[in-house]
Description:
Blueprint: E1 2-9, E2 12-19, H1 20-33, H2 37-47, H3 54-66
Antiparallel strand pairs: 1-2
Helix pairs in contact: 1-2, 1-3
Amino acid sequence: MIRKHSATLHGHRTSFSLEDEFWDELKRIAGDRQISIAGLIAEVDDGRASDSNLSSALRVYVLRSLRGGQSRSDNAA
Length: 77
C-alpha cells in the first residue's frame, strides 16, 4: 500500500508517498547506519537531482542500497 509521509527538511515541511516496502527498507537502512530516518531522508534529498522528486529519489536510493551499489546518497537520483 502507498502511504503519504511527512518530514521537515532544512526547516521546511515536505511530504512524499512511498509503498510500505520502501518505507520499511528505509527504516532498516537508517537503523543499520545508526542515523534517524529524518537524517537519511535529508541526505537523499540533498543528493537528488533537481529534476527528481523526493519519492522517486527515495525509491532509487533503496534499490541501489539493496544492490549493494551505495551506502550513502551520493548518487541518490
